[in-house]
């Protein structure tokens, strides 16, 4: 759910309660479209998150730590130059839009008092963070919008800031009579719940559904079909919500569905979800921090890995096409032996061939029957034999060359599929950097020097504890798989991997103890869970002692061989084990 006008009104109220009058202490920009502003007020410290992320734009106080980049972007440096030490005068929501304005008082280089404002527009992919003078002249923005991008308005330095077009919507906090309300909705000529959010700023589809629900009016009914009594009930529910907002009577909450997933959040109680559980909190910032904690990281990783996914997909498609072509070509070489036999039969019957003969009928002792062999009348018998031998030798050379090529192509496919599988389990940016490094090492990505080598060392494999107390480690990517199997594991530790399917290496540390049947099964289930076959059932998993695992010299990361092993069939699962 996007932040609607009601949630933003709640946020603005909370920010005015907590940070109004506070001083800006620090500013940093952990992502290209995200700011963290540290504020001190009344002996308390607050971190204000401003995000223009396309699918999760938002503003709220946060307790989730964000990394401060070593080299701050230009927008961050500009804000530091102007408003570090500045005082928060007020936080405003203009016209009940999905816009928040933070007014700041600060001293310029000459010591004169100046005013600036930060405007946060929370509008999906059009979201932005804009830094303005008090006369609305734009100093800079986190996203530049030229006329080539938007024909509606420019958001560029030195332009005058103007609000986005409101599409003739009305501020719901303005006084409106029943007759005006009725005329406004009837003029939309659509179903009632759409008419509501098409008419008023900041009213989301879910809130308009809630208004209809509390009015006992079917939200899919056309406005022209509603009686004055129905519209009166809708008007009463609408004005009730308006009264709550004006009085700042907010009840921040998260709705949880039957599968314990976060379904929605709001600053009012949503009666349409009475059958679901909910989490309530006095602070809307706590609610949003909680709601976005996991989804924000997942979305960020997905966004940053999009180029990697595209590169892997492109190269896999190229390999699949190349493999198909090679398999067709090698199929054509299956007939090579017949040319050798024809050459042999011509040689064996060379004195029976007369000059100008177009064919030879000879007894084929390989199949015990007579065979007819076509001849070139302009060639001698020995030349005809040589022609068939040459054809045979060419197909033979092609066969051996294609055999090696198919092996190389299949190895490349296995390697790329293993990297593709690793992307499904990326949880941190450090994991992504390891995958990116591997792609650079093998020429799929243009090589660039890694400025932060420590990041490559921070990423660690998953660490589980079996129900019997054994430590189980799961590699997140090929580089970790190599490290885990060839360096971390001892010779008597157990190694697990899906049979002929890309997946993670799984190591169970025995510490000199005998592994239980339950530990074997749980480790095998983890190996299947962290593989390409994690949506399947009855997945074959090979397992053996680590001392039987060998890594061929020059092989790609994650590739190992073994000749002594056991196998079991399991359903992929991470149940009954504890992630540490």
TrEMBL record:
Keyword tRNA-binding: yes
UniProt domain NFACT RNA-binding: residue ranges: 460-554
Gene that specifies this protein: fbpA
Protein name per UniProt: Rqc2 homolog RqcH
Entry GO terms, CC: RQC complex
InterPro entries reported for this sequence: NFACT_RNA-bd (IPR008532), Ribosomal_uS13-like_H2TH (IPR010979), RQC_Subunit_NEMF (IPR051608), RqcH_bacterial (IPR043682)
Keywords, ordered alphabetically: Protein biosynthesis, RNA-binding, rRNA-binding, tRNA-binding
Any one biological process term the GO annotation gives: rescue of stalled ribosome
Pfam (any one): NFACT_N
A GO molecular function held by the record: rRNA binding
Entry annotated with the keyword Ligase: no
HAMAP family: RqcH_B
Source organism: Vallitalea longa
Family named by the database record: Belongs to the NEMF family.
Protein role: Key component of the ribosome quality control system (RQC), a ribosome-associated complex that mediates the extraction of incompletely synthesized nascent chains from stalled ribosomes and their subsequent degradation. RqcH recruits Ala-charged tRNA, and with RqcP directs the elongation of stalled nascent chains on 50S ribosomal subunits, leading to non-templated C-terminal alanine extensions (Ala tail). The Ala tail promotes nascent chain degradation. May add between 1 and at least 8 Ala residues. Binds to stalled 50S ribosomal subunits.
Assembly and oligomerization: Associates with stalled 50S ribosomal subunits. Binds to RqcP.
């Amino acid at each position: 759910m996007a932040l609607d006008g009601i949630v933003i009104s709640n946020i603005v109220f909370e920010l005015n309660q907590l940070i109004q009058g506070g001083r800006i202490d620090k500013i940093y920009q952990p992502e290209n479209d995200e700011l963290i502003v540290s504020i001190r007020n009344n002996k308390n410290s607050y971190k204000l998150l401003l995000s223009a992320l396309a699918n999760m734009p938002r503003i709220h106080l946060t307790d989730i730590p964000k990394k401060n980049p070593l080299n701050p972007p230009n927008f961050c440096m500009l804000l530091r130059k102007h408003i570090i030490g500045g005082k928060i005068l007020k936080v405003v929501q203009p016209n009940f839009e999905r816009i928040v304005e933070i007014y700041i008082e600060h001293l310029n280089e000459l010591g004169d008092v100046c005013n600036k404002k930060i405007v946060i527009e929370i509008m999906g992919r059009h979201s932005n963070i804009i830094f303005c003078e008090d006369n609305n002249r734009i100093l800079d923005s986190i996203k530049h919008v030229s006329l080539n991008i938007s024909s509606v308005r420019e958001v560029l330095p030195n332009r005058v800031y103007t609000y986005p077009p409101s599409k003739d919507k009305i501020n719901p906090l303005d006084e409106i009579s029943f007759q005006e309300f009725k005329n406004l909705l009837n003029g939309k000529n659509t179903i009632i719940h759409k008419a509501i959010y098409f008419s008023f700023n900041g009213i989301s589809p879910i809130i308009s559904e809630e208004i209809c629900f509390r009015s006992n009016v079917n939200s899919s009914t056309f406005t022209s079909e509603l009686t004055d009594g129905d519209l009166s009930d809708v008007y009463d529910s609408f004005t009730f919500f308006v009264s709550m907002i004006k009085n700042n009577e907010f009840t921040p909450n998260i709705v949880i569905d039957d599968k314990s997933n976060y379904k929605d959040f709001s600053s009012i109680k949503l009666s349409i979800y009475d059958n679901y559980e909910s989490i309530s909190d006095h602070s809307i910032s706590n609610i949003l921090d909680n709601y976005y904690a996991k989804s924000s990281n997942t979305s960020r990783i997905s966004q940053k890995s999009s180029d990697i996914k595209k590169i892997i997909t492109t190269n896999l498609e190229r390999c699949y096409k190349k493999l198909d072509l090679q398999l067709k070509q090698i199929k054509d070489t299956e007939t090579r032996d017949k040319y050798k036999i024809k050459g042999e039969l011509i040689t064996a019957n060379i004195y029976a061939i007369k000059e100008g003969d177009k064919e030879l009928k000879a007894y084929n002792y390989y199949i015990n029957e007579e065979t007819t062999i076509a001849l070139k009348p302009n060639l001698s018998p020995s030349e005809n034999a040589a022609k068939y031998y040459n054809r045979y030798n060419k197909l033979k050379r092609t066969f051996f060359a294609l055999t090696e090529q198919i092996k190389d192509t299949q190895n490349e496919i296995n390697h790329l599929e293993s990297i593709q599988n690793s992307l499904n389990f990326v949880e941190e940016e450090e994991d992504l950097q390891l995958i990116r490094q591997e792609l650079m090492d093998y020429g799929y990505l243009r090589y660039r020097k890694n400025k932060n080598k420590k990041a490559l060392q921070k990423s660690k494999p998953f660490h589980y504890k079996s129900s019997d107390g054994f430590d189980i480690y799961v590699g997140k990517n090929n580089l970790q798989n190599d490290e885990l199997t060839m360096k971390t594991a001892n010779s008597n530790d157990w190694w697990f991997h899906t049979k002929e399917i890309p997946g993670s290496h799984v190591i169970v540390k025995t510490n000199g103890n005998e592994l239980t049947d339950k530990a074997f099964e749980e480790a095998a289930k983890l190996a299947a869970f962290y593989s390409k076959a994690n949506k399947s059932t009855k997945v074959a998993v090979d397992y053996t002692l680590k001392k039987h695992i060998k890594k061929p010299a020059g092989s790609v990361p994650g590739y190992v061989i073994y000749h002594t092993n056991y196998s079991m069939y399991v359903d992929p699962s991470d149940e009954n084990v504890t992630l540490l």
